[in-house]
């Protein structure tokens, strides 16, 4: 346990010194390897090769590419314009649109950061134009972005499934109901805030049923993509990896049909995908190497024994794990947190009788909380970057009511696991 504490302290020092997270993880793996009975350098090639051969992880760059094409072709922007007229009379108006559009976009991207960045770039110009409270408006975008890893297809679900050998189609099914509940909680939060403080709401945009119906066809592309990707999996026509490839093909066809595809769009999408995927793979490989080294020195067994010796009940154990994730989520990016902790904690939770699919959704939910809490709430940084002015503190303040809603959902799935396992 002392080794784990020493690693945690060293990691925080390196992180706050400005090192990228994959560098911190890699240095940690090498440091632990120095006291390992097996030379860590001998395991480096084996670990990297083993993870590069993981068929499931091939879907990760494909889903990233799908989202990049969807954004850069301009199809995502059309969704926002199509949803806005339908929510114009509900308190919160365009803030409700931020959440609803994030939910729809999440069904095509699989990434929280991509969702927050896309909706932020579209929605932020509307703040002054229609007189919204800037902090709450920005908070609704950052919160809506968290749905990107809960609504299938989710990159984090793929990574969790590959680590724990859990069925990815089951994880996708399990994420649907919690995702819709979280969307409803976010929209309810916005509604309550704007009813309590009407001056935070924006102006009513005049619209009619003719306009609403005219914009509906703009929602067809995400519906088509969701049907192709998720539908092909549950129809037994494709594996998650094959479904991701079908999704990319469908996105290319949609962009071509709408006249939005060009060499420049495709080139920029491929470049962005390669850049993002390179970082993700480095994080996954280094985290696997660190977990391998920790296993060699007996850390995983020691942690298992320590937690079991606490003699906690099931609810006490899950509350302890949630607390661990909430604290670590303040300092670690979501995917890094997943690949670092799941190999250690998943076996402990399975031994305690928790369903691996249920635990996967729980991990994703508490990881989402880390995306909107300081000091490393990545969604807030992305929204602030899209804003391009003012203080990051505005975003963190604005998103705080939505963080409460997210924690309410955590409580709901702990009290009623059937919300996650509804399909069984």
Automatic annotation (TrEMBL):
Topology term for the membrane: Multi-pass membrane protein
GO cellular component assignments: plasma membrane
Coiled-coil residues: none
Transcription among keywords: no
TM region positions: 6-35, 55-75, 136-159, 171-196, 216-237, 243-266, 278-297, 317-345, 357-376, 396-423
Keywords from the UniProt entry: Cell inner membrane, Cell membrane, Membrane, Transmembrane, Transmembrane helix
Annotated localization: Cell inner membrane
PANTHER family linked: C4-DICARBOXYLATE TRAP TRANSPORTER LARGE PERMEASE PROTEIN DCTM, SIALIC ACID TRAP TRANSPORTER PERMEASE PROTEIN SIAT-RELATED
Stated name of the protein: TRAP C4-dicarboxylate transport system permease DctM subunit domain-containing protein
